[in-house]
Amino acid sequence: MKILSLFVMLLTLVAYKVNAQESNCEKFKNGHFIIPKDSHAPESTIIRNGSIQTEQVKGSKEVSEFVVEWVDECTYTLTPTAKTRKLYKNLPKDATLTVEIIEVKKNSYIQRSTSSFSDFVATTEVIKVK
Question: What is the pTM of this model?
Fold first, then answer.
């Protein structure tokens, strides 16, 4: 009986921990963000407001625009708009990016990004600035 009680308590703690992280993702659904420069890409700025996200690489005049769809509390997809498809003509018609928030910090989060057109997986920190 003690083992069963311990198991139930452990399961409750794990479920609480998972739910606590998921609710922390809410504060990153909208806002102004920066992805710092790293070995894979230059610094970029993101503005996410409702169902639209724009991205601009530092030093570039081009602004990419995506439709945001939240799959769950910490995962969303980005689908390029017609405007972005015109900028990047080689982008597949069915291109989709999937972003999973895998760790939440005070003013930032770690995301894992994948796409429907590449095997590349990017893990980056995103800092909320506004």
Answer: 0.79
